[in-house]
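Minutes, project check-in

Agenda point 3 was the complex the collaborators sent over. CS summarized: three entities, 962 residues total, and the question is how they sit relative to each other. Sequences were read into the notes so everyone works from the same version.
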Amino acid sequence: MSDLLSDFRLKVLIAWSVLAVLVGSSRAQAQEALRVLTTLPEFAEMALDLSGGEAGFPVEVEHLLRGHEDPHFVEALPSFVKRASRADLVVSVGLELESAWLTKVLAKSGRAQVQKGGQGYCELGAGVEVLQKPQGPISRAMGDVHASGNPHFYLSPLHLISAAKRLGECLTRLRPKSAEAVAANVSRFEKRMLALHQELTRKLKASLGRGQSLESLRFIEYHQDFTYFFAAYGLRSIGAIEEKPGVPPSAARIAQAATWARAEGVRLALAATHHPDASMSKFSEISGIPNRRWPVMLRPGDEKFDRIEKLHRYYIEQLIAAIQASKPGSTNSGKSP
Amino acid sequence: MRSAARERFVSLLPLASVFAGALLLPWTSQATSMSQASSMPVASSSDNSSDTVARAVSSLPIDIFAAVDLVGPFSMDQDSQNRWVPRSAEFSFSGAIDPMFDGALVFAGHTESDEFKFGLHEAYVGSTRLIPQSRFKLGKFLLGVGRLNQFHQHDWPFITAPKVHRQFFNAGAGVVQAESAADSGVEYTWNLPTEAVVDLTLGVTNGYCFGHCHTEGQRPIHPLVYAHPTLFIENETSGGHLIGATYLRRSDSVGTITELVGVDWTYKFREARRLKWLVQSEAYLQKRRRSGTDNVEQAGLYVYPQYAWDSSWSFGCRLDAFSELSLKFVSTGERRADLDYAIVPTLTYRSSEYLMFRVAYAHEVDTTEGVGDQRDRQFMLQAVYIMGAHPAHDF
Amino acid sequence: MQIQSLCSRIDQARFGRAQRMLKSMSLVALVLLLGVKLSGCGSSRNPDREAAEALPEDQKLGGFKFEILPGSQLSLRAGKLEGDGQIRVASPMIKVNSGHNFYFKFKIEDGGELRVQTFARADLSGGVELILRRPAGAEQISVALMVGTEERDYTALLPRFAANDVHELWWDVHNNDGDQMHTVLWNEAQGDELLEDLVPMQGVGVQWGVRLRSASLLGLDRQEVRDRHE
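CS then shared the predicted structure for the full assembly.
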């Protein structure tokens, strides 16, 4: 009898242990952090925002780029492959911005769910209204044309709202129980971006002189990185110093662009920090128009540019300073830090 | 015969066990997630957009490209081969076959002995999605050893292969034609579950012919086996150090065993479009033994530093060295010093990612104790252009 | 919840050490390279040449001194070596993995044979061997290659070698073509390529020589390969 009892107790003990392990492991699974890997740092900030608060599911967010790269030309580093191999969700710009390297990174990761078409693949460009879509046939003779349109939507707070909605859909796909909370976070992010947009629009308008309007201000870019930024604030870029996208301008082209910009009354020439300083200096020297080289992504680790608001405020402050300090055709050619 | 078959089986056991272990990993979860993915289509970036030619091309399921490599060697010492030739014309198709597998097919033609000959370079099926943290290929492919051997000639940072590569990976090919070694078999790469970025590549191939092959070759005693672990150390900008080690073992039909060990190091420092610094280096030691003969030991290395002052122009200078370490004087058996070295400055202009021009000067000297130095000096010109969708490059 | 920035993951100290180590390695490699070049390769000492110089001055064919191996009955008169026996040329190849072109001018008597042995051991075994044979009463010389222990006959592929004539042949032996040996044979001075083949063996040594049986050797030379297949 005692043997039977002990045998019975042993069975009960085993049964409870198995149950405890099963319950414990399922709980552990439910609490396992969602590993989000973004290409741009701003998307990492968005992912944190959308998964926090009431949604409150654990998330580990990494970003591949650090903010000083040209997102078109990035090495497909083995360390990127490793991060992708552990990710549950990969968030990218899309619109062929990262096609030169991200495809290779994902392909080598050995992680099925983050491949294009997988549950863990999220292109935010699919959810925004795209500007500058090329019409007609495209060939390499036209330069590095993005066939799906200008991909640099992440520099507009209004387009970031659409991107956040798209990201919310991707997060909800993987954490369906948090759908409502994620939607609330998206709504909160939208308000945040609208507030930022209103604040910066106010500041810009306040900096204008009598009889001036935002539409009357003219700018020129080295490469059309700032199209969405200009569109968000009603500003106007006359075009690019590059004759063809992705093709470094020749000396003749720089001179031509300088003459054109001067004739158009351009106030400021803008370039990304990764664009060649020599070309911008030459342009300013010929045209007398000052130039600024701005970061085009957040730079975590740099307090000046580690949040979306900070980067956009920096842009507007720089614009205001340039508008107030320079007149059309002046020789002030100060550069950004 | 039985003992030979047993020996062959035993020699393959370690590799087979690695493959079996990898296959037993819980890949069913991967399959599950893929099936879920297939039932939950993700909206594409071309929603709401009208069809353009570019979008049609970008939605093709495979990458198709043609790469043409034109070379003009002009030797100051041996002018019999001085002329422009289309060194190679390569047609490549690669992409997803289905949700689980990818495929690649590469045809290439080469000019050799005044003839342009076409052949199959690579044809393999593989997957990066089937086994977690892993990828594999099955078919004919460039062997995943070393650094240079993993790239096609038109993707090399210089015009011709260093002597160590010619001797160990493409013996018999001329200076201009020497390319990467390819063979048919299976290769598996595992991204190790470590904090450090470590990959391990293992391969087994037929080994019928290794190097410059005019025919299908002969059945070897053992298949060719190789291993190539790598470690990547990232730096502050978009770049880092990729360090690898190589072990390769092969045999031929008459019992010659060749073992090759080596290290490779690649360093990149990138600033936007400009690959500001590239340093690429490989060093190898090869031992060849056959019963009844002396062992042959050879070693070689190259170092290639390259600097780019903008996104179009770059300059590099390669230093090659190669030596037969086991060389002896026949009459006395004493060691005989031997060193072949070369200095190859190279200037490159890139019009874009798809077109490149290069000029180089190769100063090669073969020195052996007791005989006069043999010198070969040649200028080389190269033009490479790519038409179509070239897949993204590895690091 | 935390952002794990790439910057924070990099162990700067480890990276700095690795970078310094790799820079040092490349410098060391360069110094070693230059050191090896400066240290010994310019020497003109050559025991093999000294051994050849010790041979009789008149024991020479085509500028190459040779040793007559034991058991041979050969005579050399007016630049013509004839009889039965074997010679080893006293100018071995430098490297086993190399390629050369061998020239020989010969005549074979009825029932005789000439074997050219290249990339062989000291006893001229284990090498790449070309066999030219005139069977008794035959009108044509047969040509064969030793492949391991078997003879691979090429007679049917070649133009007729009249049995009674003096012939000249140039023979490329590429003992450095991967795992196979690539060989090309040209006839006469016309440069016609007679045969080209790959055989699954390689010569194992650096010696070369000729075995004669009722044959005469009138000329001998060794040069760089003619077929460079660039």
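Noted in discussion: The first strand of chain B starts at residue 62 and ends at 75.
Follow-up: revisit at the next meeting once the mutant set is ready.
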